[in-house]
Amino acid sequence: MFEATVSATLPKAEFYDELAQQARALLAGETNRVANAANLAALLYHSLPDLNWAGFYFLTDGELVVGPFQGKPACVRIAIGRGVCGRAAETRQTQVVPDVHAFPDHIACDAASRSEIVIPLVLSAGELIGVLDLDSPKLARFDDEDRKGLEAVARLFVETIRG
């Protein structure tokens, strides 16, 4: 059994270093995308304070389709370019949104969400495979330190993908 022990009371840089170590250990030796996404979504949801959703959308037939997640039921399909997830997929750049209600074309899957961060998942060959999405009921929950830390964790996930 795996038990996460990351302390949310650490300074953010140290917190994300420990979170990355936990993620590396959790994903070690497994290459199944769904299994790793499920475990990583659970690790993030239970390790990061002030989240109401953490999960994955995978690129399938030209649109983002919900994958493993923790939180309330989610939107199943998101068009590339639509909402925060679609924008991250289209631009292949992390989107840090302090107030989702001020984001043009925001898709409200959970009315309690106030801020969001979405990290594109891109293979080394440049192929987009999906996005990692985290929502919070707190305004301005995510900052540049969160972006850097979560991008590092997302890279660990992408490195487990074969083919």
UniProtKB/TrEMBL annotation:
UniProt cross-references to Gene3D superfamilies, sorted A to Z: 3.30.450.40
Domain GAF: start-end pairs: 18-162
Cross-referenced InterPro entries: FRMsr_CS (IPR000614), GAF (IPR003018), GAF-like_dom_sf (IPR029016), Phosphatase_reg/MetRdx (IPR051330)
Protein name from the UniProt record: GAF sensor protein
Organism encoding this protein: Caballeronia choica
SMART domains referenced in this protein's UniProt entry, alphabetically: GAF
GO molecular function, one term: L-methionine-(R)-S-oxide reductase activity
Xref: PANTHER family: FREE METHIONINE-R-SULFOXIDE REDUCTASE (PTHR21021:SF15), GAF/PUTATIVE CYTOSKELETAL PROTEIN (PTHR21021)
Protein family (similarity comment): Belongs to the free Met sulfoxide reductase family.
GO CC field: cytosol
Lineage of source species: Bacteria, Pseudomonadati, Pseudomonadota, Betaproteobacteria, Burkholderiales
